[in-house]
UniProtKB/TrEMBL annotation:
Gene3D superfamilies: MFS general substrate transporter like domains. One of its GO terms (biological process) is oligopeptide transport. It is found in: Cell membrane; Membrane. InterPro entries: Dipep/tripep_permease (IPR005279), MFS_dom (IPR020846), MFS_trans_sf (IPR036259), MFS_Transporters (IPR050171), POT_fam (IPR000109), PTR2_symporter_CS (IPR018456). It is a multi-pass membrane protein. The chain crosses the membrane at residues 22-40, 52-72, 101-120, 141-161, 167-187, 208-231, 259-279, 291-317, 323-349, 361-382, 388-408. Belongs to the major facilitator superfamily. Proton-dependent oligopeptide transporter (POT/PTR) (TC 2.A.17) family. This is Peptide MFS transporter. It comes from Sphingomonas cremea.
Length: 418
């Protein structure tokens, strides 16, 4: 791979992928910020069923990439997959503005996401040589793009939805998806070329994963599935608690409930630079083993965030909890998230054979599928338990994930020849 022109010390293609992803995430988080409220307040669907629909939708949105990744690697190529997927998703977001098309719109977004989601981040790794030290933390930079979009989405889509009508919020999400597609089309000249043509892929079909790598990936997948059962509650039951159990008054101003969904991505943007600076100074220690230990530490921090909510709700009793506690929860949760989620995505890309990049990254989204589906089932328990007990359960789930990752880190140590 020849030396590429850079922006901000990184290949220019990273900026293109960063901005494309930012707007795609704007559309996703904009719709996610509204979805549970839209179902319970506009469509008058019960809480348990709404939580299950929410979990099923997010699960399907992350299941389709495993098929989409194979299609991108074997037939379409990554660029065509991104363009087709983004177009279908934009259509789905605009369909959300019409109540009779609700389920069809969710299906369209999930299908488009299947082509888009594995094909875009797998191009990040293609920008770098395998021994480039910037490669391991480029995914943290890419992750900031996810969260800029996630920060703006509840403020724009959420405000439009709450104040002017849910359909305006969904329409704004569709506009964001179109913006991402335009950026990708204009910036294609800065993107890495497709590494292999279909005929070449057939000749390398046997150059896949070794058994040890497969076991490590499966172990990470199981651990992150457990983790996301707790983590995904931020857009589900935690959002319901923000509406019914939190005093959102700031003086005479009532903070819109969707605005709290912006705290997580805001803290990602604030915390990522110092964490990257620290990790960059210790990049010579970034083995698979140490990265998995980093993930375990992150899961433990997220568990402590839910412990905080359990304590707050127990002490508040029948009274509303102050919104400052919810803000502190998002700060602690985000700090832990940065240790586990972008690290896991980077590990999947790092362990992928060159000709299976999209497919391997798609398997990461299959993990998100299983975790989201589990989160939907856990969310149905919200109305059955006292909030303090429920948040304590989520803390235990996150701690279980941390334990599994810590055990896995020993297994992930490099094997020495016999």
């Amino acid at each position: 791979m020849t030396e590429q022109p850079t922006w901000f010390g990184q290949p220019r293609g990273l900026t293109v992928l960063f901005l494309t992803n930012m707007w795609e995430q704007f559309s996703y988080f904009g719709m996610r910020a509204l979805l549970v409220y839209y179902m319970t307040k506009q469509l008058l669907i019960g809480q348990a069923q709404s939580s299950f629909i929410y979990g099923t939708y997010t699960a399907c949105a992350y299941f389709t990439p495993i098929v989409g990744g194979v299609i991108a690697d074997r037939y379409l190529g990554k660029r065509k997959a991104v363009i087709i997927g983004a177009s279908i998703m934009a259509l789905g977001h605009f369909m959300m503005a019409f109540e009779p098309l609700f389920y069809a719109a969710l299906a369209a977004i999930a299908i488009g996401n299947g082509l888009f989601l594995p094909s875009l981040p797998s191009q990040v790794g293609d920008l770098y040589q395998r021994d480039d030290p910037r490669r391991s933390w480029a995914f943290n930079v890419y992750y900031v793009g996810i969260n800029i979009g996630g920060f703006l989405a509840p403020l724009i889509c959420g405000t439009l939805g709450e104040l002017y009508g849910w359909h305006y919020g969904f329409g704004a999400a569709g506009v964001g998806m179109v913006a991402g597609l335009i950026i990708y089309l204009v910036g294609q000249r800065h993107l890495p070329p497709e590494q292999l043509r279909p005929a070449e892929r057939k000749t390398q079909a046997r150059q896949g994963f070794d058994r040890h790598t497969i076991m490590v990936l499966l172990g990470i997948g199981l651990s992150v599935t457990v983790f996301r059962a707790a983590y995904e509650q931020v857009g589900n039951t935690v959002a319901l608690w923000a509406d019914s159990g939190v005093d959102r008054a700031a003086g005479a101003f009532q903070i819109p409930m969707t605005w709290f969904q912006s705290l997580n991505p805001l803290f990602v943007m604030l915390l990522t630079p110092p964490l990257l600076a620290y990790w960059r100074r210790h990049s010579h220690k970034d083995t698979n083993q140490t990265l998995i230990r980093r993930m375990a530490f992150g899961a433990l921090i997220v568990g402590s965030a839910y412990l905080l909510l359990a304590a707050v709700t127990a002490l508040s009793g029948a009274e509303l909890s102050g919104w400052i506690w919810l803000a502190l929860f998002f700060l602690v949760l985000t700090f832990g998230e940065l240790f586990i989620l972008p690290t896991g995505l980077g590990l999947f890309a790092r362990l992928a054979p060159p000709h299976l990049g999209a497919t391997t990254v798609a398997s990461w989204f299959l993990v998100i599928f299983s975790g989201s589906l589990t989160a939907g089932l856990v969310g149905t328990l919200w109305s059955r338990f006292d909030p303090a007990i429920y948040f304590l359960l989520l803390a235990a789930i996150a701690a279980t994930s941390a334990f599994l990752l810590r055990v896995l880190s020993a297994f992930a140590a490099p094997r020495t020849p016999a």
